[in-house]
Design brief:
- The complex is a heterodimer of chains A (471) and B (244).
- With 471 residues, chain A is an alpha/beta fold.
- Chain A has three domains: 4-30 and 321-393, no CATH class; 40-155 and 210-302, Rossmann fold; 417-470, no CATH class.
- Chain A is 52% helix and 10% strand.
- Chain A is built from 23 helices and ten strands.
- Chain A has helices spanning 4-12, 16-39, 43-58, 61-74, 85-98, 110-114, 117-123, 133-141, 157-167, 171-180, 191-208, 234-240, 258-272, 302-306, 322-326, 328-333, 344-354, 371-375, 382-393, 401-415, 417-426, 435-438, 459-470; strands at residues 78-82, 103-106, 127-130, 211-214, 218-220, 225-230, 244-250, 254-255, 280-284, 292-298.
- A six-stranded parallel β-sheet of chain A has the order 1-10-7-4-2-3, with helices on both faces. A four-stranded mixed β-sheet of chain A has the order 8-5-6-9.
- In chain A, helix 9 packs parallel to helix 11 (191-208).
- The mean pLDDT of chain A is 94.
- Chain B folds into two domains: 2-112, Rossmann fold, CATH 3.40.50; 125-240, Rossmann fold.
- Chain B has a four-stranded parallel β-sheet with strand order 2-1-3-4, sandwiched between helices. In chain B, strands 6-5-7-8 form a four-stranded parallel β-sheet.
- The relative contact order of chain B is 0.16.
- In chain B, helix 5 (77-90) links the parallel strand 3 (71-74) and strand 4.
- Chain B has helices at residues 9-14, 16-28, 44-49, 52-66, 77-90, 105-112, 132-136, 153-158, 182-185, 187-203, 214-227, 236-240; strands at residues 2-5, 32-34, 71-74, 102-104, 125-128, 165-167, 208-211, 232-235.
- With 244 residues, chain B is α/β, with parallel strands linked by helices.
- Chain B has twelve helices and eight strands.
- The chains are: A alpha/beta (471), B alpha/beta (244).
């Protein structure tokens, strides 16, 4: 009866200490976000402004995209339009092949995950190196991100140390230089030491790369600028050494101008990681002298989301990850329990928009607590959308049989007051069933609960026999 | 003032004493309280499970039974929220008169009657359970996510009770994991959420957990009993009528 999410989440519970650590880590991020939110008296006004700007922009998207293209082109940027993932992968491959690129360094981009770019390029013999530390760790471990902002926060440093020792060819030489610069790796998995190793390893990659790829947090229509926010400066390294820069940008990342940018700049890091701002906010306006800059604008289903009356507001999302951090289900089931590559409340919805039959197993992962609606900096109505998707499951052939039977049964019982009253009268009989039967696997309530005790008389009966006559 | 008493299905069957307390409390405040006997359920269990179509006939019946009262009051925040926030989307406007007048007991006492004293006495330490739909759909307290002035209507009412000590757990409005059929379909996560929540209530040193929603209390009580976690559960209506 369970969904794939429910099953994976149940397996995840087998190590309660892992669940506790995951929950505390991400709730800690939520608390940092709360401190930021409460430090700005204008917080709720900012959220409303961001909501309105995004609504305005996505409902005038064609105009802003053309404005962006025009401005970027006049800045000397090559702008490409990709209808879907295949189109996008082909455009990127063409650019790389035209330049004879053998190695690409990449800063973090969920869009490239969405389109499976890395696998595609690797099939064509191009070496792709992730440069965001978390993404690099996962790439080496052959794992997918389990969160969109902190993709490897679930990996322990012991595992990271082992991976580095195994897969970084010059690990020992780098370790020696760590001692030479005054470090002391008493603990071989000391985070500062491992970060040093990663930094030296990545520097070599930057030097060898022929192309730097970045995502885009924002595209500014008025100026044609692309804005990339990172904490590690890896986007800057990726674009400062190779002469070729390719930006991958979903079409919903467009905002009108720098006045709007000011609103989002104040919200993004505060919501995502609880920082006032990301350590680096890099603005790319054109190619470096002697270099080339390309922006690939990717649709890949976004236009059809725009036409979806019930779910178009997901296009406002700026991928801060706050909804995951606050989600009590995400925190206790972790990213890999979800079948779509973006987990948590926004991922449930984006997965359904991608393919409702394939990704319906995540729709159960919501207690409808509505916390996500209240942290979202652009006011996506996340829980309402989950509720709406649930209404679609039956027609998709994906309704849970037991839930359906229970809903039908309740519909019948509650629809006929006489039947309902008879059931009320009968209900105390449950108390006389043997505990073994009541608390058996056949009773789903008994999985986590001791069975409730039915009182002898329902309120209905107390009313009709007593209270009514006292009036 | 004519009050329609809405006693949700599971309160009717499992917690009749909560219904009785609510009735006593409202009549003690001089109100004309009536319980339409044909009422059953607001439809929320089906709606949240993805079968809103099964809930629509119940929403229609709810409106027929309750449309002529000045207010409809329920001792269950989530059910009141479903009626007020979801019935209007399920029914034609002319079929939907009761929804706008439907309130949870706490907000009715706090916002409409504006009670400033009650004869209740409850000399115990209680931990307040801020139920999600009460907080985020009905506004019974300021959601911890939002930068809005802090308030809590449940605590305001409890403070009128003589001898009581009121506390809140860490993470004061994190979900307990009930969520209707969520508790069955996602039973492992639901159980874990429940255990975490009950432990946070216990960590306050309280003897009782109280709140405006019997469904959260039912879930946590079932978990606490199965896990042998020592704390008791009581609906706020029972505390507010402790001397009646």
């Amino acid at each position: 009866m369970s969904t794939l999410h429910a099953k994976a989440a149940e397996a995840y519970q087998l190590k309660p200490e892992v669940v506790e650590r995951h929950d505390k880590t991400f709730f800690g991020v939520r608390e940092k976000r709360d401190r930021m939110a409460h430090a700005l008296p204008e917080w709720e006004d900012l959220r409303e402004a961001a909501n309105q700007i995004k609504k305005h922009t996505v409902t005038h998207l064609a105009d802003y995209l053309e404005q962006f293209e025009q401005a970027a082109t006049s800045n000397g940027v090559h702008v490409h339009w990709a209808k879907d993932a295949d189109d996008y992968n082909r455009i990127v491959l063409d650019i790389l092949q035209q330049h004879g690129v053998k190695k690409v360094v990449k800063s973090k981009s969920m869009l490239t995950e969405e389109c499976h770019l890395n696998q595609n390029l690797e099939q064509h013999g191009i070496d792709v190196v992730e440069t965001d530390l978390g993404e690099r760790i996962l790439q080496m471990m052959k794992l997918a991100p389990s969160h969109i902002v902190m993709p490897a926060l679930h990996v322990h440093r012991e595992e990271i140390g082992d991976t580095f020792r195994r897969l970084i060819p010059d690990f020992d030489e780098i370790a020696k230089t760590y001692v030479a610069v005054g470090g002391s790796p008493a603990d071989k998995n000391d985070p500062t030491f491992l970060t040093y190793v990663a930094r030296m390893h990545l520097r070599q990659q930057f030097m060898e790369a022929d192309c730097g790829m970045t995502g885009a947090n924002f595209g500014i229509a008025e100026t044609g600028d692309v804005v990339v926010c990172t904490n590690e400066g890896n986007a800057d390294m990726s674009t400062s050494i190779p002469k070729l820069h390719i930006v991958s940008m979903g079409i919903e990342k467009i905002i009108p101008n720098y006045r709007a940018m000011g609103v989002f700049q104040r919200l993004l890091a505060r919501c995502g990681t609880g920082q006032e701002t990301t350590v680096y906010t890099s603005h790319f306006r054109g190619p470096r002298p002697g270099g080339e800059m390309h922006v690939v604008l990717v649709d890949n289903g976004r236009s059809s989301i725009l036409g979806n009356e019930e779910h178009w507001q997901t296009l406002k999302c700026m991928r801060c990850g706050a909804c995951m951090n606050t989600c009590p289900v995400y925190r206790r089931s972790a990213g890999y329990s979800y079948t779509y590559f973006i987990p948590g409340p926004i991922g449930i919805n984006l997965g359904m928009l991608r393919n409702p039959v394939q990704y319906s197993d995540n729709v159960s992962a919501c207690s409808l607590c509505c916390s996500c609606d209240n942290v979202c900096p652009v006011k996506v109505d996340l829980s309402t959308q989950v509720y709406r998707w649930r209404q679609q499951l039956d027609s998709l052939g994906k309704a849970d049989k037991m839930k359906k039977a229970m809903s039908q049964g309740m519909g019948f019982l509650f629809g006929m007051p006489a039947a309902y009253k008879a059931a009320l009268w009968m209900s105390p009989i449950v108390n006389w069933l043997p505990g073994m039967l009541l608390n058996s696997v056949l009773n789903p309530w008994a999985y986590g609960h001791r069975m409730m005790h039915f009182p002898k008389r329902s309120f209905h009966e107390i009313w009709s026999k007593e209270l009514k006559h006292q009036r | 003032m004519k009050i329609g008493l809405f006693i949700p299905c599971y309160v009717d069957a499992l917690y009749p004493e909560v219904g009785v307390s609510t009735y006593k409390l409202l009549t003690s405040l001089g109100l004309d309280v009536y319980y339409p006997e044909e009422q059953t359920c607001c439809g929320q269990p089906m709606g949240n499970a993805g079968f809103e179509q099964k809930a629509i006939p119940l929403a229609k019946k709810f409106d027929q039974q309750f449309r002529n009262f000045d207010y409809v009051v329920a001792p269950s925040a989530s059910c009141a929220a479903y009626v007020r926030c979801f019935h209007p989307g399920m029914l034609k406007k002319e079929q939907c008169e009761a929804a706008g007048k439907t309130m949870d007991l706490v907000e009715f006492l706090h916002d409409v009657l504006k009670v400033t004293s009650l004869p209740a006495r409850f000399p115990h330490k209680v931990s307040v359970h801020n139920s999600c739909h009460g907080v985020r759909e009905l506004g019974l307290s300021s959601p911890s996510e939002r930068n809005v002035p802090k308030y809590n209507k449940v605590i305001d009412l409890l403070k009128l009770v003589d001898g009581i000590e009121v506390v809140e757990p860490e993470r004061p409005d994190e979900c307990c994991g009930f969520g209707g059929m969520f508790a069955i379909e996602e039973q492992a996560v639901s159980r874990r959420m429940g255990i975490d929540k009950v432990k946070r209530h216990i960590a306050t040193g309280a003897e009782y957990v109280t709140g405006p929603d019997s469904s959260c209390l039912m879930h946590m009580q079932g978990i606490a009993e199965k896990e042998h976690l020592p704390i008791r559960f009581i609906h706020i209506a029972q505390i507010l009528t402790s001397n009646l």
